[in-house]
Design goal:
Elements lengths: L5 H38 L5 H36 L2
């Protein structure tokens, strides 16, 4: 049952227009926020996975080399102490 009252029809048109405007504003706000986030993240200095893995491997090699050198120093110090004790 549709109303013949022009006041009600105008009110319905007004509400439909307001709903459409609100939906449009929501879309614009979402797009604006998305752009701001992209700009913010784009300005950050992230490293790629390949670069991260390469640096991780370099650090592991350096750690292993450091452990080997520490063991060598310990052996040399022990040998020096042995020679000094004679």
């Amino acid at each position: 049952m549709q109303s013949e009252n022009p006041l009600i029809a105008d009110f319905v048109k007004l509400m439909n227009g307001a709903a459409g405007t609100l939906a449009g504003m929501t879309r614009e706000a979402r797009e604006s926020a998305r752009e701001r986030v992209k700009e913010t993240i784009g300005g950050l200095d992230f490293v790629g996975r390949e670069e991260f893995d390469a640096v991780k491997a370099m650090a592991a090699r350096a750690r292993d080399e450091n452990d080997a050198l520490a063991a060598r120093i310990d052996a040399l110090e022990a040998r020096l102490a042995e020679l000094a004790g004679r």
